[in-house]
Amino acid sequence: MAIETELLILGGGTGGYVAAIRAAQLGMDVVLVEKDKLGGTCLHRGCIPSKVLLRSAEVMDTFKMADDFGLEMTETPKVNFSKVMKRKQTIVDQLHQGVMGLVKKNKIKVVNGKGAVLGPSIFSPVSGAVAVTFDDPEKEEEIYVPKKLIIATGSVPQTLPHLPLDEETILSSDGMLLLDELPKTMAIIGGGVIGVEWASLLNSLGVEITLFEALDRLVINESKQVSKTLQKQFKKRGISVEVGQLVENAEIKDGSVTLSVKGKDEPLVVDKVMVAIGRKPVVEGLGLQNTSVKYDAKGIKVNEHYQTSESHIYAIGDCIDTLQLAHVAMKEGELAVDHIAHETSEPINYLNVPRCTYTSPEIASVGYTKETLPEGRKVKTGTFQFNSNGKALIHGKADGFVEIIKDEETDDLIGVSIIGPHATDLISEVSTAIYMDASPIEIGEAIHPHPTLSEAIQEAALDVYKLAIHK
Prior knowledge:
Radius of gyration: 24 Å
Distance between the termini: 72 Å
Shape: globular
Oligomer: single chain
Largest sheet: 7 strands, mixed
């Protein structure tokens, strides 16, 4: 028997469950299909658990700096990795319970099974019905027929043929979160956000790291100056950074991995390898071939309102070709539901979505960088170094800077890059300012409390007009 519903959401990750809650708030009858756990990659295998580990790494770094603060430690701090991982799981479990509570509170029906989209059939004259199968072989398949369907199936780590993942010796970010103990040496392939975050935290926890990036710099989506500053700090911390280097082969032997690097005679032998070359959308195995929904290796094709080529079927999050960020998936989910409910929604300007990297030092940016400015765009910039900021010096973390870009003709704020302490928290002020079409002078003239890290933003904003006080 087919079960009818107003809206079915395929995938209960960040985008999916947020869309479900928004739809329920608007009075819709919602079914949420999830094959694993609510919260998806972000909560269980991505954002949250990795940031828990990064916080442990940050605390270890603070212990190491104790003498700088006039504090004498009688013993050298040690990493109890099992406790680190236990704390990670405790936080993940608490947040998971919270998500399940929100879904229950909003009276959303959750179906724990694997969904596949059906084409036109006896259940529906149009595509979009969903067949749900279960791990329990005794439980029969269920068919749901929604008026509207949102696909939110997320993404999975990708690798290369010569770097086959076994999640024991050659690992993805998923496998890294299941480690029982820290390796002594490790190579990380990929210098994007995931790669540099893991390099940073593992180094702080005492692992000898070699980081390979095939391109000519780390975090290629950030400004060149940010990349340069991060690489300098990594080398200062003892992380071996190899940019412009291509790992051609990995051979597992006697419990270690031998890496062959293009143009180098000597291979590198390490205990484990992490592959961090990005994530690929989950589009295969969903039954999309039964529909006229268009998709390719980059994801499902959608319009600005997240409608596919079949207008009653929507797609959001990592399974479409937009920024693979949890906060983007959340907003896309909300906007897709708004369009379903009201037949209108405000398109996202993806340029103005804040981008965060939780290394030490942290990186955050929004809008343009110097490298991504349209040709011929006339701009002025202002900068301020954290080593001239009182709060940064107090914290003992004064590396990095704030850079602000304004449009010379309109005086609008169009780009901000921050590398330094708490950059990922600081970015919200300027992200909001861009959203509100503010100019840098409005940020600069607003009173900022002293001493705070936010004063660096104020000073950089004033520096656009050569009015910075402390520069």
